[in-house]
Design brief:
The chain has helices spanning about 5-15, 20-25, 30-35, 45-55, 60, 75-80, and strands at about 1-5, 65. The chain is mainly alpha-helical. The chain has a single domain (about 1-65), classed as lambda repressor-like DNA-binding domains (434 Repressor (Amino-terminal Domain), Orthogonal Bundle), CATH 1.10.260.
């Protein structure tokens, strides 16, 4: 399971620039950029709450879960045909 950050999509829909959101939330543009690109290892609930307040959304609008599909087993013949 992988957590997907959809902050960039939400910001685009709200026409919110990174620097404006960083100012409203009270964090640096660098830290917000790390979060936006999905490279953050964690997020404080207070930061998530501030982002949701600024973008008028719910945490589920920003964070999503990517389910890994089971791997399909292929025979050697099928692989050779690819």
């Amino acid at each position: 399971m992988k957590i997907i950050v959809r902050l960039d999509e939400l910001m685009a829909r709200r026409k919110m620039k990174l620097n404006k959101l960083a100012e409203l939330v009270g964090i640096s543009e660098t830290n917000l950029s790390i979060l936006k690109t999905g490279k953050a290892k964690a997020i404080r609930f207070s930061t998530l709450e501030a982002i949701c307040r600024a973008l008028e959304c719910q945490p589920g609008d920003i964070l999503d879960v990517e389910q890994f599909l089971p791997k399909v087993q292929h025979s050697e013949e099928e692989i050779a045909a690819l």
